[in-house]
Design brief:
3-stranded antiparallel β-sheet; two-stranded antiparallel sheet; alpha+beta; about 70 residues
Length: about 70
């Protein structure tokens, strides 16, 4: 997570209990987003396109299990 002093780890921000869900399955992603209470996006800067691109979601394991 980017903050004014610089990047911070997930543990320091309080998101270390979330599970990574890679991009690619739109139906499962939509279902997870309906059942979640906390979500974070993993983004990576693409230098060729000069923008941030989503690589996946960090979601609660309970919401992921319910969506499956």
């Amino acid at each position: 997570m980017m903050e004014p002093p610089g990047p911070a780890c997930l543990h320091c921000v309080g998101l270390d209990d979330l599970e990574f869900r890679p991009a690619g399955d739109a139906l499962l992603t939509r279902r997870v987003l309906l059942k979640r209470t906390t979500t974070a996006y993993r983004v990576l800067f693409a230098f060729t396109r000069r923008r941030y691109e989503r690589q996946g979601l960090l979601v609660e394991p309970r919401a992921l299990a319910d969506a499956r």
